[in-house]
């Protein structure tokens, strides 16, 4: 009886329409992100990876409207897998306050965020399995964030024997795919700059939650003798270079 009931919930979760993430960040994703898209976010410490994730959360969970106020959020639920223990609730609230959002709106919005604190590889895999039921029960979830996907690499190499870093990432994504493949959600994960081989991973044009579709590489370079932040956004068809600044109220994209 329980198995049949869960199957019905899963079917309902697949058929129900989920909030669109279009507008999450028009600079990084002019026409997206798309359902079933996997996005990787890489970069050295201090380039703003975790800050960008907080920006994504803020935009996602804020309402479209609140009473007579136009907020321009996406009103979507977000699941955050906090593997590196970098998640900062106070910073998230601060970013929302910087947008002149009142406390009542912040309180309503935070109910759309679910955070799982992950401390080892086994817990991460168990959480992947839990996502299947969570997505079945909540059709408002559109975005899953993993920070970072490489957190338990050294722990896992002792068990699985996978040494190649890119292969390890694809293995973790394969495990995640088994649990969420039926649901039109978007996955964004981070990994450190050093955690990749020289060849890197090719971006796939197929959106099915099995391979990386978009790779965003954050780095610092010199532009006209001035150090600046650069985001290289790579897809299967093109490469776009964007410049940005990290300020108190978040990431600001430059012309």
From TrEMBL:
Rad51-like C-terminal domain location: 32-191
Example of a GO biological process term: DNA strand invasion
A GO cellular component annotation in the UniProt record: centrosome
Pfam families, alphabetized: Rad51
SUPFAM superfamilies: P-loop containing nucleoside triphosphate hydrolases
Gene Ontology MF, one: four-way junction DNA binding
InterPro entries reported for this sequence: P-loop_NTPase, Rad51_C, XRCC2
TM helices/strands, residue ranges: none
Name assigned to this protein: Rad51-like C-terminal domain-containing protein
Species this chain originates from: Rhynocoris fuscipes
């Amino acid at each position: 009886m329980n198995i049949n009931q869960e199957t019905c919930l899963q079917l309902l979760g697949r058929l129900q329409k989920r909030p669109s993430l279009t507008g999450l960040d028009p600079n990084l994703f002019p026409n997206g992100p798309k359902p079933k898209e996997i996005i990787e976010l890489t970069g050295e410490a201090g380039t703003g990876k975790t800050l960008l994730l907080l920006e994504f959360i803020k935009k996602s969970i804020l309402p479209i409207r609140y009473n007579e106020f136009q907020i321009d959020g996406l009103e979507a639920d977000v699941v955050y897998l906090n593997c590196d223990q970098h998640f900062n609730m106070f910073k998230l609230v601060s970013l929302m306050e910087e947008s002149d959002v009142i406390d009542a709106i912040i309180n309503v919005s935070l109910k759309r965020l679910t955070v799982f604190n992950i401390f080892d590889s086994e817990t991460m895999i168990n959480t992947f399995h839990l996502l299947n039921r969570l997505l079945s029960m909540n059709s408002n979830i559109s975005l899953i964030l993993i920070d970072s996907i490489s957190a338990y690499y050294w722990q896992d190499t002792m068990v699985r024997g996978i040494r190649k870093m890119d292969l390890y990432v694809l293995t973790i994504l394969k495990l995640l795919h088994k649990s969420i493949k039926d649901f039109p959600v978007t996955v964004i994960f981070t990994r450190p700059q050093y955690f990749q081989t020289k060849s890197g991973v090719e971006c796939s044009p197929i959106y099915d939650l099995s391979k990386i579709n978009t790779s965003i590489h954050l780095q610092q370079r010199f532009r006209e003798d001035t150090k600046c932040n650069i985001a290289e956004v790579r897809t299967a068809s093109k490469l776009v270079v964007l410049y940005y600044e990290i300020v108190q109220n978040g990431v600001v994209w430059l012309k």
